[in-house]
C-alpha cells in the first residue's frame, strides 16, 4: 500500500464531514439569507457533486487533474456566490461562505496529488476568491487564508517526502535482493567452477607439455571469473566474531577429494522437497576419511533441510581451505555439537595456521572462499563464523547457527514457496 493512501482515505472522510457542516450552516442561517433559494440550490449542487465524486478521492489514480480543477471550481463558485445570496452586513461580520470549510478539501486534493506547489497555487486561487467575496482585506479573512495556505503547503511537502522515502525504500530493497542473489551465485560458482578451474591449472602444471598450456588457460579463466564474481558485490560486514577472520578462502581451491566428488547439499528424498527436518550428521559424515575425523552426537541433529544444506556446504568450504592451504597430508577434525539453543560445528586442522592480515588481503584480491562460501552462508542463516589461528598451530573454525534463526529461515522458505 502506498504511504499516501491513508491521506486519500482521510480526505474522503473530510469531504463528507465538511459537507454535513456546510449543510448545517445553511439550515441555521436560512432565515438570514437575502435569497435563501439560491443558497439551497448551491447546497444541492454541492451535495450531488460530493456524492457523485465520492470514489474520485479514494486514490491518486482516480483523482485526476480534471477532477481537481472541477472540484476547486465548485468551491470557488460557492465563495463568489455568497454575496448574491447573503446580506452585506453578515458578510462584513465574517459570516462563513456557502461552502465554508468544504473548500479546504479541494485545496488538500491538489496538495496530496501534486505536492506543495500544487497546494500553494490552489490556496492562492481560494484566497483571491475570498478577498473578492469580502471586498477588502479583513483581518479575520487574512488569518483564515494564511491557515489554508500553510496547511496545504505543509501537507503537500509531507506527501513529497513520503513519496521520495517510498522510492528510496523500494530501491534499497531491490538492491538488497540483487546483492543477496549475486552472493548466492558467487558461492555456488566458488564451490564448483572456480575449484574445477583451479584443479585443472594445478594438474596441468604437474603433468607438463600440452597439459601445462591447458592449465595456464584454465588459470586465466579462473582469475577472470573470480574478478567477475567479486565485482559489484557488497563486502560482507565484519562482525566482532570474524573481524579480519580468515579468508583462508581458497582462491585456487581444491576439490573435496581427489576424485572430485563432494557430499550433496541434502540427501535426496522428501526432506529436500518439503523443507522438513534433515539430520546434519548425514550431511557431514561423507567428509570423514583417513585424514578427516568426524565426531558427532549419539542422537540426530535435526535442522530444516535448507539450513542443514547451507551449513554442510560451509563445512565443505572450510575443509577445502585445509586441503589447499595446509596440504593434502594435513589432518582435520570435525566436531558437531547440538546445544539447547544452537548447533555448532568446529573444523580444526594441524596446518601452518594463518598469518595475521592474510584473510583481509585475500578478500581484497577477490578470493571469496571465506567471504561468501563460509561467512556469507552463516550470515544468511543468522549465525556466526569465528576463526582461531596462530602461525604454526593450525586453524580452528567455529560455525554456529542459533536454532531460533533456523526456524525463521524455514518459515521464510515456506512463505517464499
Secondary structure: elements and pairs:
Elements: H1 5-28, H2 36-52, H3 65-85, H4 88-92, H5 102-114, H6 116-134, H7 139-207, H8 210-230, H9 270-274, E1 277-279, H10 280-284, E2 292-295, E3 302-304, H11 305-326, E4 332-338, E5 342-349, H12 358-364, H13 369-380, E6 384-389, E7 395-402, H14 403-416
Parallel strand pairs: 2-4
Antiparallel strand pairs: 1-3, 4-5, 5-7, 6-7
Helix pairs in contact: 1-2, 1-5, 2-3, 3-5, 3-6, 5-6, 5-7, 6-7, 7-8, 7-13, 11-13
General description of the model:
- The protein is of the alpha+beta class.
- It folds into two domains: 5-170; 237-416, Heat Shock Protein 90.
- Helix content is 61%, strand content 9%.
- It has helices spanning 5-28, 36-52, 65-85, 88-92, 102-114, 116-134, 139-207, 210-230, 270-274, 280-284, 305-326, 358-364, 369-380, 403-416; strands spanning 277-279, 292-295, 302-304, 332-338, 342-349, 384-389, 395-402.
- The strands form two sheets. The chain has a five-stranded mixed sheet with strand order 2-4-5-7-6. A two-stranded antiparallel ribbon has the order 1-3.
- A hairpin with a 3-residue loop joins strand 4 and strand 5 (342-349).
- Helix 1 (5-28) packs antiparallel against helix 2 and helix 2 (36-52) runs antiparallel to helix 3 (65-85).
- The longest helix is centred in the middle third of the chain and has 69 residues, at 139-207.
- The radius of gyration is 36 Å and the shape is elongated.
- Residues 232-274 have low confidence and may be disordered.
Amino acid at each position: 500500500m502506498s504511504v499516501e493512501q491513508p491521506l486519500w482515505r482521510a480526505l474522503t472522510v473530510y469531504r463528507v464531514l465538511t459537507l454535513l457542516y456546510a449543510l448545517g450552516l445553511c439550515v441555521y442561517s436560512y432565515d438570514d439569507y437575502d435569497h435563501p433559494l439560491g443558497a439551497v440550490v448551491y447546497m444541492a449542487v454541492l451535495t450531488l457533486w460530493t456524492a457523485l465524486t465520492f470514489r474520485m478521492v479514494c486514490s491518486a489514480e482516480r483523482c485526476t487533474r480534471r477532477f481537481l480543477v472541477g472540484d476547486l471550481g465548485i468551491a470557488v463558485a460557492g465563495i463568489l456566490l455568497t454575496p448574491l445570496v447573503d446580506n452585506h452586513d453578515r458578510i462584513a461580520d465574517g459570516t462563513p461562505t456557502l461552502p465554508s470549510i468544504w473548500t479546504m478539501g479541494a485545496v488538500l486534493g491538489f496538495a496530496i496529488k501534486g505536492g506543495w506547489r500544487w497546494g500553494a497555487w490552489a490556496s492562492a486561487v481560494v484566497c483571491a476568491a475570498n478577498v473578492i467575496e469580502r471586498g477588502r482585506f479583513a483581518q479575520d479573512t487574512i488569518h483564515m487564508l494564511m491557515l489554508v495556505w500553510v496547511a496545504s503547503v505543509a501537507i503537500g511537502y509531507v506527501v513529497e517526502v513520503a513519496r521520495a522515502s517510498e522510492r528510496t525504500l523500494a530501491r534499497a530493497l531491490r538492491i538488497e535482493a540483487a546483492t543477496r542473489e549475486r552472493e548466492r551465485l558467487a558461492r555456488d560458482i566458488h564451490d564448483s567452477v572456480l575449484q574445477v578451474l583451479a584443479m585443472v591449472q594445478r594438474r596441468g602444471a604437474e603433468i607438463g607439455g600440452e597439459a601445462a598450456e591447458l592449465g595456464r588457460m584454465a588459470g586465466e579463466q579462473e582469475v577472470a571469473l573470480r574478478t567477475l564474481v567479486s565485482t559489484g558485490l557488497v563486502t560482507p560486514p565484519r562482525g566482532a566474531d570474524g573481524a579480519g577472520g580468515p579468508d583462508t578462502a581458497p582462491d585456487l581451491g581444491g576439490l573435496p577429494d581427489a576424485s572430485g566428488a563432494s557430499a550433496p547439499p541434502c540427501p535426496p528424498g522428501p526432506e529436500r522437497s518439503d523443507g522438513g527436518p534433515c539430520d546434519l550428521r548425514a550431511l557431514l559424515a561423507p567428509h570423514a576419511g583417513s585424514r578427516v575425523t568426524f565426531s558427532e552426537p549419539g542422537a540426530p541433529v535435526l535442522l530444516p533441510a535448507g539450513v542443514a544444506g547451507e551449513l554442510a556446504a560451509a563445512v565443505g568450504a572450510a575443509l577445502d581451505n585445509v586441503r589447499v592451504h595446509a596440504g593434502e597430508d594435513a589432518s582435520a577434525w570435525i566436531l558437531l555439537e547440538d546445544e539447547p539453543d544452537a548447533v555448532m560445528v568446529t573444523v580444526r586442522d594441524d596446518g601452518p595456521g594463518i598469518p595475521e592480515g592474510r584473510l583481509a588481503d585475500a578478500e581484497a584480491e577477490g578470493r571469496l572462499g571465506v567471504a561468501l562460501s563460509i561467512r556469507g552462508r552463516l550470515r544468511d542463516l543468522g549465525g556466526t563464523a569465528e576463526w582461531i589461528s596462530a602461525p604454526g598451530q593450525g586453524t580452528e573454525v567455529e560455525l554456529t547457527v542459533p536454532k531460533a534463526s533456523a526456524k525463521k529461515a524455514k518459515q521464510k522458505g515456506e512463505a517464499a514457496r
